[in-house]
Amino acid sequence: MPELPVFAIARHRIGIDGPGVTTLVGVQGCPLACRWCLNPHARDVNGRHRLYTAGELYDAVRIDNLYFAATGGGVVFGGGEPLLHADFLPGFRALCGSGWKLSAETSLNVPAENVMCAAKAIDLFIVDIKDMNPDVYRRYTGRDNAQTVENLARLLEAVGPQRVLVRVPLIPQYNEPADREKSIAALRSLGVARIDSFSYVLRDGQAPH
Known about the structure:
Largest sheet: 8 strands, mixed
CATH topology: TIM Barrel
Strand content: 15-25%
CATH class: Alpha Beta
Number of helices: 7
CATH architecture: Alpha-Beta Barrel
């Protein structure tokens, strides 16, 4: 039975992770090394976390079932990179049923089979694309973005554009407004319909993720 390494559970989030009242489940492990990462501790696979079975996590979050049902909210898997543990998600969906909205905040920089597995369970993919320019992406994350772009195209075909929200940030010291506009144009050409364009704000040398 798959277990999910969880470093934090944050309840009663409103207007942050999609519609309604949500509970954020922070998942340990990430393939990227983003320069302005909000949760750098999540990159350490040996970091402090608790392993949950699907049943244990369901028991931990169902206390807010009434909030989820009343507002159209649910559980958001973030991190870290929750799609590293995509095999956990269908089992959790089977327990909570269709009444909760399940979302995943993801870079999509994971194997294609992980994305397709997650597509069976996740209602909304919140994709943190960083920048479509491979050089900008590599400088900021330390990784290539070819897998991310391929997975995005694959995901759009599998679940449709309404279940994919792509976040395109302006990152101080890494890209410019013109870069962001080029990224948005490239995303539109792929068939992305929902785009969240925003800017990181530096605070004491760090920026919100």
